[in-house]
Specification:
- With 285 residues, the protein is an alpha/beta fold.
- It folds into three domains: 110 residues, Cobalt-precorrin-4 Transmethylase, domain 1, CATH 3.40.1010.10; 106 residues, Tetrapyrrole methylase, C-terminal domain (Methyltransferase, Cobalt-precorrin-4 Transmethylase, Domain 2), CATH 3.30.950.10; 45 residues.
- The chain contains eleven helices and ten strands.
- It has a five-stranded parallel beta sheet with strand order 3-2-4-1-5, with helices on both faces. A five-stranded mixed beta sheet has the order 6-7-10-8-9.
- Helix 7 packs antiparallel against helix 8.
- The termini are far apart.
- The structure holds S-adenosylmethionine (SAM).
- The site of S-adenosylmethionine (SAM) has 23 residues, from helix 5, strand 7 and strand 10.
Length: 285
Amino acid sequence: MQRDEPCGGTLYLVGTPIGHLGDLSPRARNLLAAVDVIACEDTRHSGQLLQSIGAVGRRLSFHQHNTRNRLPQLLQLLVARQSLAVICDAGLPGISDPGEELAAAAREAGHEVICIPGPCAATTALVSSGLPSGRFCFEGFLPTKGRERRQRLEHIAKEPRTSVLYEAPHRLLNLLQDLIQTCGSERPVQVARELTKRHEQHVGPTLGAALRHFQAQRPQGECTLVLGGAPDLAGPKLTDAELIKRLQRLITSGTKASEAARQVAEETGHPRRELYDLLHRDSAD
Ligand code: SAM
């Protein structure tokens, strides 16, 4: 038997569409239509959706610039046994938006916190990327500059699991360039653009290819980047003969020696210099 919703004194984190309005679930629709108060990341942005479903609850803005002031007011509503829903501009509140802080504060204060699940850009991009999804990391937005950004990039480069990152379109080229510096241009990636919308697009299959694409076509709209994990450097060690075979295969198919050494270095974790030396030793023998 399902519980009655909405319930006074409960915080509901409600998933809303990330583009396609058909993705609003019947449960989310019913709850939003009946709840006492709706905290919206942007009341104007969400106004259209809320109006279309006949939501009558009071709307309050709740975003990264008023979180500190708004939090106590929202908690007070829960104390007064009002039902409270929080929604973000798109997707699941609590993932890279202030819903996270509200959920933590409400739990800390002993209130019931319930998620009405819905679309989330991170998981939507992940499952359509075709990259391993059995184990993955969510990195959200990286710091835009400085040491913290460099450290996060280095950490991501070594991460064996698939990583999911959010980025604003005007910073996408910068992110791809920084990832190429730390992970190499051959690292698999899929950039999911405009998920669930008319112009949904997935761009890959490598960082280098994605960079070339977006250099030719300026990135526009919402983007989520799904990055393949670091190659398994702890895997079986290849013998010199096996490494030379891999290098020769690439060279025979037209790849330059330096590029072949770079590619095999990336695949196997062997230093590029050593591979280059191996090639020279082999051709001198
Ligand atoms: N809480 C939201 C969620 O569950 O997806 C994400 C909020 S975060 C502030 C917004 C970021 O999500 C965007 O900058 C973009 O990286 C990603 N995003 C949102 N909608 C998207 C879409 N339709 N396609 C691709 N990425 C999207």
